[in-house]
Amino acid sequence: MICPKRTSELLDLHLAPFKDKDPAWEVGVSKIAGRGVMATRQLKRGEIIFQDSPLLIGLAAHEEDTLNACSVCFKMLPDTRFMCRQGCGLPVCSLCAKKKQHKTDCDMFKSWGSNEPDVANSVIIRLLCVARAINLSKDQRDLIYCLQANLDNNHRTEVRNAAKCFKNFPTDKKIVEIMNRTVAVLRTNGFDKTTDRTTDNQEFNYRALYPLFAVMNHDCIPNSYYTFEEKTNNMIVRAAVDIAEGEEITTTYTKLFTGNIARHLFLKMKKGFTCKCPRCLDSTEKGSFISGLYCRDTNCSGLVVPEITGLPHPNWNCLVCKQKSTHAQMMKSQDFASGAINAKVNSNSLRTLVHYLNEKSDSFIPSSNYVVIDAKMSVLARLAQGREDCNEELVSSTRLRYSRDITQIMDQLGLGDSLLRAQLEQQLHKEEERRAKKQQELAKKQQELADLEQKAAEADKLLAALAVAEDPAAAAGDGAAAAAAAAAAEQA
Ligand SMILES: [Zn+2]
Ligand SMILES: [Zn+2]
Ligand SMILES: [Zn+2]
Ligand SMILES: [Zn+2]
User: Fold this and answer.
1) Proximal ligand: closest to the CA of 105
2) 70-80: per-residue pLDDT in tens?
3) Full-model pTM
4) Residue 399's CB: how many other CB atoms inside 10 A?
5) Distance 141 CA to ligand 1 centre (A)
6) Cβ distance 289 to 303 under 8 Å?
7) Best CATH choice for the domain 4-53+210-249 from the list 3.40.190.150, 3.20.20.70, 2.170.270.10, 1.10.1200.10
């Protein structure tokens, strides 16, 4: 384990610009693993715990059609001429081309000699975040070495592949080692393609390392959540629930709505550890039944959940009839359901998907299962973009229903605040407000109608009275006379 004291010193240097004199956190020995971030005082739900700035940040360059973004300010540029005219092989805007940051990047990449400096190459652009580690101060580089890195067989591949894109790529072992180490740290605790930090329903298109955030340990029900400041890309970490003094502050490395087995596999393969949080030790996942499937016995209406063994292929038990099933048997059911639902998710018609989820899927997969939750999330995302084949009433009722379903699962899991929850609650409020307004409008229209009816009745009464005054015979029910009287009254 790397010394918590040295890590703290280096973090203090890194966070000095925030000038937090009385931080709500400290680095200490963790009960979860090694070292972690602890609360130094009681924290209220929603309170800011800390801010962190990226020690390293660069373009993620995952998709070829997004390579025309400035490597310094990250703004998208016209896709005709965006490469540096100095021949460094990096995209840069005319303003940033004159900045110190680009001067440093430009000198380094020019000295390495890109094979095709005028062509945007995702391997080169992606490497920039890693290569920037070379020009950090010694303390900053030490901080990188203080962070956990999964030094598996693959971590050298990226730099090895990037080397082929340059004529004079550095051969100095120390420099190559800094880059390899940075790749490993980014993959373990940074924001990178291989880290699955899409948990909070927010897009983050960079490759970046936030050192204090990187020290935080994982929990499948994290007690904190983070957002980014758009201008600076600084990270703000808040308490998701009330946190007691001395309690460890945790984040999550996995998606929130995946079952125990999938999370275990991901954490084991990508992060190299086995999670033993309360959710992972509970086969019902705190009563949310995210992994739950129907019992294979058609006469039984029980749910089947995987045993907690830590094995990749555990047995499954029915909670009602207690029948045991093998992992392979249950995976057949899960794969069938996932296939059927994903086929509808990928189809063009949202109406068909909603109909399927509301009326059909419940017959072969419990609505608590993650594949149903995922499908509902994708429906909400598509509704937020508009342009779908649903009428107003269907849009409204679906929004209301699915937002409620998902917040309910979050409550069952004991998940506190998060950006996702805020978004869902906003949708709910909007929809409820819209409904209330509609109700009001309806009530108003009904009132108007009632008023009109009353006026008509009054007019009738008046006419009848007039008729009686002019011709007492009309009062006896002479229709023709009454009509004549009415006509006379109207003319008058
Ligand atoms: Zn720029
Ligand atoms: Zn340049
Ligand atoms: Zn866990
Ligand atoms: Zn059963």
Assistant:
1) 2
2) 999 999 998 77
3) 0.83
4) 21
5) 25
6) yes
7) 2.170.270.10
